[in-house]
Amino acid sequence: MWVEALDVMLERLSKRLDLAKIVSISGSAQQHGSVYWKNGSFRILSSLNPDIRLVDQLGEAFSLKESPIWMDSSTTEQCKKIEEAVGGALELHCLTGSRAHERYVAPQVRKIYEKLPEVYHSTERISLVSSFMGSLLIGGYACIDETDGAGMNLMDIKERQWSNVALEVCFYAYEFVDVRNKTVCTGIQLHNLIKAS
C-alpha cells in the first residue's frame, strides 16, 4: 500500500508539473511504523526502472506484506518482557527515553522474531516508514533519522547509538540475523556494537 500510494502521488504530480524540474524532495511519515525488506531486496531496489510502476517492481521485495504501524497494540507481552529484562519500565525509560509501548518498533520486531521466525530470518533490512519512503526515492536503503531511531526502544539516548542492552533484550543475546545491519541510524556509530562471533 505504501508503494502504490507513492506511485499514485507521482502520477498525479506528473500530470500537473514537469517532474524533471524537481531538484529536491522533503517529506515526513508517521512514526512507529516498520517495513521488512526481504533478503535480496537491495538488488531490486537499486535497479528500479523509472518507466515501470514501483508497485510492479517491488511486489516481491517484502518479507512481511503488512507493516505494523502506530495503531498496533498486539505486543503487550513483548513490552512486559523487554521492561522486565532491563529492570523495569523506569530503567528502560532512562536508557531509551521511554518505557516500552506496543506501537514501538522494538516490541514489534521481537514479536515477529518470536511468532514469525521465518519472516524475521528472511528479512534483509528493517526500515521505519520515513526511511522506507526515502529508500524508494533514492533506490537504496536510506538511513533511519536519529530522532526517529530514538523512538524505537533500541537506542541509548545519552550515547546516541544503538544500545547493546536493548538489542540483547529484544533479540535474545544476538541470536538473530544482525539487527545492526537491518536498522542503521544516521549519526550512530555501528562499529561500537559489533560482537565477536
Automatic annotation (TrEMBL):
It comes from the Eukaryota. GO terms for molecular function: D-xylulokinase activity. SUPFAM superfamilies: Actin-like ATPase domain. InterPro entries: ATPase_NBD, FGGY_N. The keyword Amino-acid biosynthesis does not apply. The keyword ATP-binding does not apply. Residues 65-170 form the Carbohydrate kinase FGGY N-terminal domain. One of its GO terms (cellular component) is cytosol. Pfam families: FGGY_N (PF00370). One of its GO terms (biological process) is xylulose metabolic process. Its EC number is 2.7.1.17. Keywords: Kinase, Transferase. Belongs to the FGGY kinase family. This is Xylulokinase.
